[in-house]
Amino acid sequence: MVKAATRQGCSTRPEYSVDGLHSSNSKPVIHIRMVRRFVGAGTAFRQIYRYVAEHSGKPVIFKDVRNMIQDIQNEVKQECVEERVRSLLDEFRAEESGNVARICKNSDSVATCIVFQTTGMPKMFSLFPEVLLVDSTHKTNDLRYKLFSFMITDAYGKGQFAQHALVDQETDANMELAVEAFQENNKDWAQVAVIMVDKDLTEIGVLEKKFPNARVLLCRFHVLKWFRQIRTDDRFALSRVLQNEMLLRIKQMVYSKSASDYEAARDELFDMLEESLKPNATKDRSKLNDSSDKKSHPFIGYFNENWESCRRRWVEYLRTDTPHLGNNTNNRIESGWSKMKPELNADTPLDQCIETVLTLQMFKEKEFERHTNVVGEVIHAEYDAEMAAVLTASSPYVAGLIFPEYAYATKVSTLFYTRKNVRECFASATMVLVALNTP
Fold it and tell me: What's the pTM?
């Protein structure tokens, strides 16, 4: 069965005996089968209340009866949703041999993870396996399952979903179920070199375990968003001026091009924070990492523990050797969800949520097919014959990445030197482009 909806004032599992109802307050005892018939027939509340009051033998309040009716409706709704979801996924699997769907249940037979992947998803992933964007979103269905999605970047710079899963909670167990299903259905999963997540995704350890050859990076947008929120935390007692200065230095660290740039911004921030304390605050930078130094500003300890230790995930100069294909944020996956959100909300039945996601995926795959099979020649007014050949052989997105480097290389004032080995540069490392030099 699928998870029951939880509403304020009622539990997900009614606290009733087999033959009677036991309310938390007045504890009336009635024949629950008769009440179920009333609810199923759409009997008016006042008639159901009258029946309960007459047969309970004890005082009954309106709230007790309303909670009882709601619990019965949830049970009926749960059974109907379970059947509809199972039927929908069976139909989905029968449409094409490559369509995959799986319902994972816990020991109580409650669905904790529902995974589905179309035939086109693994085909798309096999073409562009280097970078995987991973994130989850909420308010897509009435049972509060979170939509947990994997996405890749195609040749046009667009995001393409590679798998969807609906999870009842963001736990390690559910993450492993979704990842294992993905790896089972995508034989090229070991080619994933980069996984982009946001700071709120707590199951990073699961991804590092399941993708040992991949490097997990933090979404730049969510890193800055996190610091915007944390700067007002009462633990740090930062003035408005210090809050703004702190965010400015954090941005400088995020976009730093070298270790010296990063350390300079960090040290300036630490100095400002120490200056904000009492005059006798420590200035010895060697003690900034010492948790026993109680004079150090509390934000410094927080930063060293939570951010300094993982700066390879969020600082720019430390990811220049990583093939992230220009993905520094999870904006592409957010954009993909934005196409779904107008059709989904917290009141959407679970089966309708799945059907909507699958329908939109079908449209997305057809759109990619149209782009790929378009007849004609793409022309760019600024491209010369060589760049026009690149554009013809690739896509406007790829050519757009190459053009700034090409324009710089063809300037009269540009100086060249050659080596016998393959040139190591930012573009070749991050965009999986190999540039050969003339010996």
Answer: 0.71
